[in-house]
Amino acid sequence: MFKWAQQALANVAGTQEPIYGPEAIKTVAVEAETTPYTELTRDDLKWQAMDSTCVETQSFYLMSDTGKLGFAQVIYSNVVGIRTTCQFNCKIFDTDGTEPQMWSSVQLSDHEFSEDKSGFYAQNVAVELSEDGTTFTIKSMVDEKAPVNLTVKRLTPGFKAGKTGKTLYGTDLANPWGSMSHAFWTRCSAEGTIGSVDFKGKAMFVMALQGMKPHHAASKWNFCDFQGPTYSAVVMNFTTPPSYGSTSVTVGGIVKDGEIITANCKSAVTHVQVKGDTENEWPEPSVIKYTWTGTTKDGKPVEAVLEGALEERLDRIDVMAEVPGFVKTLVKAAAGTKPYIYQYNPRKQKLSLKLKIGDQEISEEGNLFSESTFISE
């Protein structure tokens, strides 16, 4: 069968794609060779709400001053331009063994966007971006067990890799059939509550767009959210399926209040030790290493490493069992797809970011939230 016909079938039915090879992907790292990163404007945070197959998310990762860890997220999903669904997710992790973990995932009704696409609304949900583009308010009453009232304010300019932040997929990259992009507010303050838990503290915001079926765009993911007293660091890494050459794409950055230290596509993630998951045979990591390499705006070299044991996982999410039905629709026909998300927050021995900026060496202990996701071989 011609590859274009196979692609058309995959788009509709969710089947595996043929092998196009690495020439069918243009990663954002190509742009980042000449423009390592671009500071975000308010326009970068507007919803695209594509008419074709996509999954678009706004995610807020929360670390309270009291040690609580939480998460709030809006998902917009379009399946082949036929069915659009929106979901509101929130979570409070049991980080100290004193309280049960709380997870809420509710399909939304009557979604709409503000006129300029900066705000999202649905029945009993509102996520709004301030006029000056520095603050999000997140309010939800869709689950009476988990009312949400949060304010997240960026303390440092946001960034995307390269000029556009986009990785493109397709055999004609001038007219790509898919894309992946991320935009980050790496260091934010947070105020407000999920349920009865006060989340005054630090936060990270990520806006992501997968402009194709998620399991066609990536087979594996790694994510790092490190928050220290002075510095914050992020890594977002994904590996494509063999259809696109099992290509690895990594975006990372290090910031402090008011300043991006460095950001680019030169970060790396290594699963230093793997213990594996006997229940599903995925290579669950036990020791992880994140690295950053780059330069400051004034040309000073930057190197950083964050390495250590992940300890016992916070959670293992069987995506097919846990997430809403629209995601199952996207992946149910894809052979070999068994997505699991592993989440960690080392607590017995907190990890330290070891940072070198020019001749200055810094070591800062902080709070790490780490995710490793396996979708397909």
From TrEMBL:
Descriptive protein name: Oxidative stress survival, Svf1-like protein
Keyword set, alphabetical order: Cytoplasm
Main location: cytoplasm
Keyword Cytoplasm: yes
Domain Svf1-like C-terminal: 212-376
Organism: Podospora fimiseda
UniProt record, GO biological process: response to oxidative stress
Listed PANTHER family: CERAMIDE-BINDING PROTEIN SVF1-RELATED, SVF1-LIKE PROTEIN YDR222W-RELATED
Any Pfam family matching the protein: Svf1_C
Residue ranges annotated for the Svf1-like N-terminal domain, each copy included: 55-210
Cellular compartment(s): Cytoplasm
Family as reported in the entry's similarity comment: Belongs to the SVF1 family.
InterPro entries: Ceramide-binding_SVF1, Svf1-like_C, Svf1-like_N
Gene Ontology cellular component list: cytoplasm
Phylogenetic placement of the source organism: Eukaryota, Fungi, Dikarya, Ascomycota, Pezizomycotina
